[in-house]
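1st attempt posting a full record on here, be nice pls
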Amino acid sequence: MGPTPTPTLVLLHGTRMNAGFWRDYPALLPGVRVVTPDLPGHGSRGAEDFTWEGALATVERALPADGPVVLAGHSLGGYVAMSYAAAQPHRLAGLGLVGATGVPAGAGAAVYRGFARLVPVVGSARMAHVANGVMRRLAGGRDISQVTDDGQGYAAMPAAWSAVMAQCGPHLLGGLDIPVLLLNGGLDQMRLGVRAYAAACPAAQVVTVPRATHFLPLTHPEACATHLRGLLDRATQTYRG
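the predicted structure (as tokens):
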């Protein structure tokens, strides 16, 4: 039996972000093949329409043919990741959800639905200007100009979050027999449904980083990378090829 192939970590960004969101992670995870695609309607693919099918196809194209593969995503990327894992569990050795354990239904979903409805009314460029200022504050004042989209990412938001609310929820984790990480910031509103996700997948590891916001991967990259490394280690140990 030969050595285990190099593990691959596919990282999916959230709404209004792009692949640059994960720019620090290859250096933080030496010995890991880190793949960071842009989702439809974001980054280098800003001219494309966002569709759920297109997002899942992006994941499929990003996966290598060999070795243990861990799929992890932040916010929207986490919901895409859980949807792919539910449909293709045999393709993955592990799943990580970062800031993606809100239950997209009820009162919580109403906030995102209302925000998305504002985009065509206010305009994606104006919405980007205002919301990016809020995001900079949540990111601790860090320069996020290279990791956030301007109007194009906001234009994709209504379709993206309509799909999340239609497709996603804790039920997608039921039956998964791969290592799962549920990672959230202690100040992140998206962690409020984590108990429902943990109940659906009792073997999942639940981690909360104190004082971190929804932008945990940006503000606490070392902590985030440490927990992703732990997920990779568990996935590699249980990898069956």
